[in-house]
Amino acid sequence: MHELSIAQSILSIAEKSVPPDSKEKVVAVTLQVGELSSIETEALLFAFDAIKSNTILQHAEMKIETIPGEAVCNSCHNVFHLNSYATACPNCNSYSVSITKGKEMKIVSLTMED
Ligand SMILES: [Zn+2]
User: Fold this and answer.
1) I need a surface site. Which of 20, 55, 88, 101 has the fewest CB within 10 A?
2) Per the structure, how many domains does the chain have?
3) Mean of the pLDDT values across residues 100-108?
4) Ligand 1 geometric centre to CA of 90 (Å)
5) CA of 105 to the centre of ligand 1 (A)
6) What is the pTM of this model?
7) Ligand 1 centre from 101 Cα, in Å?
8) What is the pLDDT of residue 88?
């Protein structure tokens, strides 16, 4: 499962970021997930809950912000929203478009508390 490996890499990033003797605990992990990244956020939340017990993230809640997909048309330079690949430019119907936003997945922050 794709989302399980993503959840595991988030955990390993968090383990590297937080000193093992830290008295603070991680209470939230905030992610940005692009609309075109093919990540199922429900599955990712489920995978995260499944692996976090007995780790430094056991008290953490995952928060996901969605980044809308955006593309620029190579023919008419129109910028438009798209939620899947193979979307034609709404202005000129060209399929020659470059995706500029929405493919990324990144950790924005780890929220710590005493
Ligand atoms: Zn166009």
Assistant:
1) 20
2) 1
3) 95
4) 7
5) 27
6) 0.84
7) 17
8) 96
